[in-house]
């Protein structure tokens, strides 16, 4: 999904009241932080975190080997906050 497609999808979520504007803004901020650190294919962090799932929540980076661990950590440490995550150098499915 491109950045434009992602933003359009989020706008649709807000417009159809499946997400609040503040949640969209939070999620976009976390994606911005992720992209700043991992957006470049040459980022040394991509090598450091290969085969892990990296997320940003409440402006903090969290890393896990399993998606459920990442999400559980985010919920426990930052309840109510949005999390943006991506697997590094692999597909989840």
List the helices and strands and how they pair.
Blueprint: H1 3-15, H2 21-38, H3 44-48, E1 53-57, E2 60-64, H4 67-77, E3 83-87
Antiparallel strand pairs: 1-2, 1-3
Task: Give a brief description.
It contains four helices and three strands, in the order αααββαβ. The chain is of the alpha+beta class and 93 residues long. It is globular and about 40 Å long.
The total number of structural domains is 1
Q: Report, as a whole number of angstroms, the end-to-end distance.
A: 15 Å
Number of distinct helices: 4
Based on secondary structure, the structural category is alpha+beta
Helix content: 40-55%
Multimeric state of these chains?
single chain
Helix-strand pattern, N to C? HHHEEHE
Largest sheet: 3 strands, antiparallel
Question: Which descriptors apply to this entry?
Answer:
alpha+beta; 93 residues; 4 helices
What can you tell me about this protein's structure?
The chain is of the alpha+beta class. It has one domain (3-87). The protein is 51% helix and 16% strand. The chain is built from 4 helices and 3 strands. It has a 3-stranded antiparallel β-sheet with strand order 2-1-3, sandwiched between helices. A hairpin with a 2-residue loop joins β1 (53-57) and β2. It is globular, with a radius of gyration of 13 Å. The mean pLDDT is 96.
